[in-house]
Amino acid sequence: MSHSRFHGPTLALAGTLCLSGCATYHALPLISADVERNLRPLDGDALAIAARKINHPLLHSLRLDASDGLSPDEAELLAVLLNPALRALRDQAGEARAQLLKVGILPNPQLSGNLDFVTGGTTEGTRTGFGHGLSWDLQALVTRGQDVASARNDEQAVRLDIAWDEWQTALAARSAVYDLVSLRAQVAQAKDISERLASNVDLVRKAADTHEMTVLESATVEASANDARAVLLGLEQELEQRRIALNRAIGYPPATRLRLQSGTALSSRVDPPSASTLLHGLEERRLDLLALKRGYESQDAKLRSAILAQFPNITVGFNRAIDTGNVHTLGPTITLALPLFDHNQGNIALANATRQRLFDEYTNRLFTARADVAAALADIQALNGQIAHADQALPALRRLVEISGKAVAEGNAGILGYYLTQNDLSRKSLDVMKLKQQLAQARMALEIAAAWHLSP
To answer: What is the DSSP letter of 340?
Structure first.
């Protein structure tokens, strides 16, 4: 009877406790249709709502309006909302939350039981003995505080890393819009140059046939036409690449043709704040630096946990038993691990080395960030000067083309000189467009490096 009283209710209670709160399995098959559905962008209403509710330390909410084309600011937000790579990164936040939940759960107590069957000897007056006990490992209590602190810092680091990737993806989309604007203008300019030179080739060939121009002059014009065609083909290739890059940054299929806002223009000059202003508080604005700091604090907590775990593991509990002579006993139990060989020195050394690596990695990232700010500022300053110089030279070239044209019309100059001057003006105009594109890229580089939104 004693045996049944112990095992019936006890096993039932144990089974009930084990089953209560258990998770169930839900299948998530990797089916092509589900993947395609997941890649499908949100509809307009859902996007508009998400854009107004976005919560990001470096990005601001915005009212999306697709009627007038895509603006650089809208491209930023769409990239954050739709980019599949960011959606996958955000899943890491769920993993970090799960890890925090895991380390916060205390270990289960252990229920044990035993039976002692009488199998021989002097068996008169004996009975089947049994015992049961309940014990609990105290080691988790010793390290739980540091383990939870480590997991909490890890979760914050993951969130900051995700926000940093969102910021870079948003600026990549913004930069791609400016690249498209610039390259479309460059392609149009290069097409005009190529078509004009192609028509000039026919004219100079006829002039060479009638000995009004030399064969060398005709060959020079033809070579210029071939060069212009090559430049046009190269720009068209770059334009298509940047169009696909914009689609990829936002999260649209490659074949999607996005209409850009007609008023989008590239600046001829960027006037950022001073280096001291941008560097002040840089480590509090750069989300990757904040993430590294949280990672360092997490590792510091892991080191503390490893040091606490060097103390002997203690398990406490109590046992109740009835031996074969029907003697009833009840008493506490304690199990103490003897740290003769393993003082957790291996885990302590590993945690300490990892903390040192994270310290040095943070120092290097901060050093690199400051250097990136300085380099971007130098690029902007140099490009401002180059664009200003080129803009100043263009009016003089236009006057020279006008004078050369009049001279050719009056028969006072050769047509080859006019063609060359006109081509020089076209190429200089193309160079200015490229410089403005480089200035936009340098501006994006500075905004990323300084985690700073520059004024338009």
So the answer is: S
Cα 189 to the chain's mean position, in Å? 36
Q: Cβ(62)–Cβ(128) under 8 Å? A: no
Tell the burial category of 238 from Cβ atoms under 10 Å away from its Cβ (0-12, 13-18, 19+): middle
Query: Is 11 strand, coil or helix?
Result: helix
Question: Which tens digits make up the pLDDT trace of 221-270?
Answer: 778 888 889 999 999 999 999 999 999 998 888 888 989 988 888 999 99
Across the chain, which distance is largest between two alpha carbons, in Å? 140
Beta bridge partners of 135: 110, 317
* Alpha-carbon span 180 to 188, nearest angstrom: 12
Q: How many CB atoms lie within 10 A of CB 168?
A: 17
One of 1.20.1600.10, 3.40.50.1360, 3.30.470.30, 3.40.920.10 is the CATH number of 52-118+128-254+264-450, namely: 1.20.1600.10
Q: How far apart are CA 312 and CA 309, in angstroms?
A: 8
Query: Domain spans of the chain?
Result: 52-118+128-254+264-450
Query: What radius of gyration, in Å, describes the C-alpha atoms of the chain?
Result: 37
How many residues belong to the chain? 456
User: Cα separation of 57 and 386, whole Å?
Assistant: 35
Strands (E), 279-437: 314-322, 328-336
| Residue 21 backbone class (left: φ over 0; alpha: ψ -120 to 50; beta: rest) | left
Note whether 161 and 336 are within 8 A (CB).
Answer: no
pLDDT tens, position by position, 327-360: 888 888 888 888 888 888 998 999 999 999 999 9
